[in-house]
Design brief:
Blueprint (H helix, E strand, L loop, with lengths): L2 H12 L7 H6 L1 E9 L4 E4 L1 H13 L4 E10 L2 E11 L4 E3 L2 E3 L5 E13 L2 E9 L1 H7 L6 H14 L1
């Protein structure tokens, strides 16, 4: 196992619900390292990285990442995984919180880790956010979207 793979596997261990060490996770990053949650257009830096882990674990306290494949390509580590857990905490949204449902999630995800000198410079997480939302019962409101589009079209 390469040093880069060891760093990435340690990051996953520290992010587990039964361990959850946000400060230890953050310490694996370079000073200016970033954690990019791409489906949600969020970039976390500095202390936000640890807060992001704590926020997700607050919603899914038993969070687990099932690593399916790990590929090391020099300073890049590509991981296929599933994010699993139980929806036991309030899920924040721009319009309010989704109350806990007790539903289990099993979300397909691909992560790309870019390392520099044994530390994480960039972590890009591509999780299937639509799958997660459907699994906790938050399906899209297509009716409202269609009505809003019709209203906008009549004003134009």
């Amino acid at each position: 196992m390469t040093r880069n793979e060891e760093v990435v596997r340690e990051a996953y261990r520290l992010a587990e619900g039964n361990v959850l060490d946000g400060h230890g996770f953050r310490a694996l990053f370079t000073e200016d390292g970033t954690f990019n949650d791409l489906p949600n257009a969020m970039t976390l830096r500095g202390d936000e990285i640890a807060q992001g882990l704590a926020g997700l674990a607050g919603v899914f306290p038993d969070i687990h990442r099932e690593l399916l494949a790990v590929h090391v390509l020099g300073d890049v580590v590509a991981v296929e995984l599933r994010i699993q857990g139980t929806h036991l905490g309030a899920f924040p949204t721009p319009v309010g919180e989704i109350r806990p449902t007790g539903n289990r999630i099993d979300v397909p995800t691909a992560d790309l880790w870019y390392l520099r000198e044994g530390r994480v410079e960039t972590f890009n997480c591509y999780n299937a956010a639509n799958v997660l939302l459907a699994q906790i019962g938050a399906t899209p409101d297509f009716t409202s979207a269609i009505e809003a589009a019709k209203t906008a079209a009549t004003r134009a």
